[in-house]
Amino acid sequence: MNRENIILIGMPGSGKSTCGVLAAKALLKNFFDTDLLFQGLEEKKLQDIIDENGIEYFLAAEERTILSLDINATVVATGGSVVYSDKSMEHLKKSGKIIFLNLSYDTMVDRIKNITTRGVVVKKGDSLKDMYNERLPMYQKWADLIIDCDNNTVEETVAEIVKAAEK
Ligand SMILES: Nc1ncnc2c1ncn2[C@@H]1O[C@H](COP(=O)(O)OP(=O)(O)O)[C@@H](O)[C@H]1O
Ligand SMILES: O=C(O)C1=C[C@@H](OP(=O)(O)O)[C@@H](O)[C@H](O)C1
Ligand SMILES: [Mg+2]
User: Fold this and answer.
1) Is residue 157 part of an annotated ligand binding site?
2) Which numbered atom of ligand 1 lies nearest the CA of 156?
């Protein structure tokens, strides 16, 4: 088995979790959603960490979670805010191929209806558009490969992830 990880990054709602698990199945790899480990370590839902501890704490705790990862042969769905930590991104990059699931701003907004409960990191005073514009070049910078997901079904994105992983 190829031991390389396939690491999915991208805006909230881009399908990292939904498509990641299906791609893992198709690739005969394990699947790992870093949000679940993060919540488990903190013993709190992501939104509660943001509300009760603030964004700075949230990002530091997310970084601790990512740096604790020692896995291989796994499709990894990261949280959208992972790109705020260079250390986390370097750690992930060492372990495999980074795929950016790219979405337009409008599609992101359409997908994330539950913005106040799903635990998205938006800095104080910033709009969702500010968050989008700030992050886009960060995802692009770390990506080994970019998949444009706006007009894709889940199955099409999964097929593109599988193709990219097998390259
Ligand atoms: N074509 C599509 N690809 C991926 N997700 C889609 C698509 N169309 C609708 N969705 C929905 O968008 C949401 C994607 O959320 P999720 O997988 O949690 O993304 P992420 O983990 O990147 O935040 C899910 O509710 C999914 O059902
Ligand atoms: O984009 C973000 O700021 C976040 C997205 C969430 O994950 P998804 O990208 O899986 O929605 C979660 O990790 C975290 O609460 C922050
Ligand atoms: Mg997710």
Assistant:
1) no
2) 1
Per-chain mean pLDDT for the chain? 95
Contact assessment for residue 56 and residue 62, using Cβ atoms and an 8 Å cutoff: no
* Domain count along the chain: 1
163 is in an annotated binding site: no
Question: What is the structure's pLDDT at 1?
Answer: 61
Nearest-CA neighbor of 108 among 136, 86, 84, 88? 136
What amino acid occupies position 8? L
Does the structure show a pLDDT above 80 at 27? yes
d(C-alpha 57, C-alpha 1), whole Å: 38
Domain that holds residue 137: 5-166
Q: Separation of 16 CA from ligand 1 center, angstroms?
A: 7
User: How confident is the model over 67-105, as pLDDT tens digits?
Assistant: 999 999 999 999 999 999 999 999 999 999 999 999 999
CATH number at residue 89: 3.40.50.300
Over residues 125-148, mean pLDDT: 97
Q: Which atom of ligand 1 is nearest to the CA of 157?
A: 3
Whose CA is closest to 77, among 87, 65, 64, 59?
65
